[in-house]
Structures are given as C-alpha cells and as structure tokens.
Amino acid sequence: MASNSAMPPPVTAQSLNPKVLKCEYAVRGEIVSIAQKLQQDLQANPGSHPFKEILYCNIGNPQSLGQKPITFFREVLSLCDHPALLDKTETSSLYSADSIKRASTILDQMPGRATGAYSHSQGIKGLRDTIATGIEVRDGFPVDPNDIFLTDGASPGVHMMMQLLIRSENDGILCPIPQYPLYSASIALHGGTLVRYYLDEATGWGLEISELKKQLEAARQKGITVRALVVINPGNPTGQVLAEENQRQIVDFCKKEGLVLLADEVYQENIYAPDKKFNSFKKICRSMGYGDKDIPLVSFQSVSKGYHGECGKRGGYMEVTGFGPEVREQFYKVASVNLCSNISGQILASLVMSPPKVGDESYNAYMAERNGILESLARRAKTLEDAFNSLEGVTCNKAEGAMYLFPRIQLPKKAIKAAEEAKKAADAYYAIRLLNATGVVVVPGSGFGQVPGTWHFRCTILPQEDKIPAIVSRLTDFHKKFMDEFRD
Prior knowledge:
Blueprint: H1 18-22, H2 30-44, E1 55-56, H3 71-81, H4 91-94, H5 97-109, H6 125-139, E2 148-151, H7 154-165, E3 171-177, H8 182-189, E4 193-198, H9 209-221, E5 225-232, H10 244-257, E6 260-264, H11 281-287, E7 297-302, E8 316-321, H12 325-337, H13 343-352, H14 363-389, E9 394-395, E10 404-405, E11 408-409, H15 413-421, H16 426-438, E12 440-441, E13 443-444, E14 457-460, H17 468-485
Parallel strand pairs: 1-12, 3-4, 3-5, 5-6, 6-7
Antiparallel strand pairs: 2-8, 7-8, 9-11, 10-14, 13-14
C-alpha cells in the first residue's frame, strides 16, 4: 500500500557524484545560457532587444558561424557514406577523380565497406597507416601506426589520459593558466588535483621553466604526486606559439622530473605570425635524440580546428609513445570499452593528415579554400587585436596562432564592487553586461584561470569577416559607456 508521506526524490543535486558537482566548463556556461535566452526572445519578439542578432564569439565552432567545409573532405565522406554512388556514371562528372579514388581506397580498408560498422578499437588500420605517414611527412621521423588511437575529437583522448593517470586527489596534473577548461573539468571529473602554472602575459604568454619548477616543487611539498605536464601549443585561450628552444627546455624538464608530456596540438594549422612556426613535441623529442622509450609523450590532434573546422564530425587522434607494453595494454582496454570512435571522424582525421597533393585534380581548389580561410582568420585576428588595444584600460597580446584573443581589462573599482554585490566575478559581470547590451558573446577570463587580481575575456576570431565591424563597433560603444558609468 502506497504511503501518504512525501518521499524525498531519489536523486538530488546533493546526492550526485561530488566530482561532477566540482566540474565547471566556462565556454558553454552561464553566458551562453543567457545568449540562448536572448536569441529565443529575438525570434519570438523581433525588436525586443537593442540588437538584431547574437554574435557568438565564445567557442571555437567555425561552421556554426558560416565557415564552409573543405570540398574534397566532404566529397570523400559522402562517397564513403553512400558507396552506391561509385557505380553511377554521372558521379565522375560531379566528383573529382582524386576524391573518387580516395573514397574507393578507404572503403576497401573498412569492415564490410561500411561507415555504419564498428572498427578496431584504435581505429581503422588503413586510416591509422595514412595518419602515421602524414605525421612522418610533417616531422621527418618514423611513426608506428600502432601508436595512433583515433578518437571522437581530442577531448575523449584527454579524458582517457586523465582516467589512466589519476588514481586519487593526491595525483596532480600541471596545467597552464590561463587554460582550456577541458583540462580543469577533466581533472575534477577523475578526482585529481589541478596544479597551476602561470603563463607570463608580459612576455606574450611565455612559458617559463622557472615557473614550472616552482609550481612542481610547491605541489610536491603538499604531498601531491605530479603525473603529467599539459602544454597547449598554439595556446588556447592565449594564442601564443612556442619557440623551438622553449620546447626543448620543456622536454628536458619532463625527462628530468619523470612527467608524462601531454601535448595539445589541435591548432597546429592556425599560425598567423610570419616569424612563427609550429613544431610538434614529437619532432622536438626525436631531434633531441630521445627515442620511443625515453620519454612518455601523448600528442593530440583534432579535425575541429585548423582550417577544416569539422567540429560536429568529432574526429581526432592521439599519438602515444614512450610507454611500456603493459601500460599500452591498459590504453587499449580503455579504448575497447568505448568500442571505437565514429567512422566519419576517423575518415576526416586521415584526410586532414593526407590532403590533396600537387598533381591531384582537387589540389588547386583545396589550396584556394584552405589559404582563403587561414588568410581571413589572420585578418580578423589583427582587426580585433587592434580594436581591443584601442579601448581604455584594455591591452591585448598578438594572436600568433589558434582562434582566440585574450585581452586584459583594467576594471574600475566601482565596477568590481558592483560585481561583488551581484555575486559575480568582475570579468563575468562585464561579459554579461556586454551581452545584454550588444548581443556579443565572450567568455570571462575567470573561466580559464588568470593571475589573481587581473581580469580578461576570451573572444574568438571566427565570426565571418563581414560581421567583424559590427562586433568592433558594438564592443567599442559599450566599453566607453561602461567605463564612464563606473569611472572612479
């Protein structure tokens, strides 16, 4: 017989896993929820706000903001998804010869010639072979395809490494501050400790070995076993590109201190400074004479970034070197629990690492699309950088790479006090006010971490070029009014 007494709900927020409650992810947090509500208002009641559209500058999601996919990539994908097209006579007039050839080759490598079939847990062997060759071409050093684990974007690879390395809250991971919140969130979810090292804003977000040593020693004195060092290059949210000598210092530091080097290299195609060049940590390690057994290194790559921007396809890989066979067995076991990554993402990862070559029918069109996107991103970065540096109390380092700017803002004391009264971080208060006044969505720096007492926000360079003037004018007008309102 049912009881009349009210039973408490079986699940409450307080009864959930405390590791989940501790986890935060700023780029899709409160600001975006407000933006989505405003967008619904505008759709239901046009003219209900002092702007006509929401301009999303909060997340690296290129195609949602109008970037077109690379034709060759999508031709190959469509043929792989619908192989019957290969038997139709009209296909040769609709698709390039090299996309038809590539799709046929990929289908021959797949179980049942079907994108709807599970693959090997590390990914389709032929695609891993192609990726391994692409890395060899990039770096000039040999690659074992068995070191490649294909993943649903870089994020699951990061989660896998945290799951494997973190045993308890006494295990720590060294992460840059500012950092991409995937790392702090993943460390929290897996019950570890985030060990912060601060990038030097005054030197263009430099990574100082003395800072790494200081934070490592402080963590060890607290009884924390630091397992790994995360390096994001090019930087997110900071946009810097590491110099080769700095990378060598980082490798030596990890070797000396017995740390796993986790190299987030998903923005390797996004280099805008003419005097800067991307070098993978794998290349740096091998050029220093460190072989496969000398230093544990995990390199992450994604199809979501670069010039491809295929975020929704969820493709990526991690290259895992420097681990013994018993450890590798555990990597494979964890990968097997998820069966395999999605096949479209696997195909795209192989295409990104092996795009059309000189002499291929698609080559000229591919290069025009690729270069057009990267050159436009460089122009957008420069326009926004100049705009930020023209604002009162705002300074912004140059975007050498990646897809973001991370300007620092000197907020008036009255604004900081108003934020405290609203129970918000000062930069979050600024970002919310900016959003409600202009429809421009940025992410407060407090969501990425920053030196205490400093305030920033992250702005992507991804809105289409014809939208950039509107962002600049809206932000400029708002900032002047905000500073006037709270002037000390």
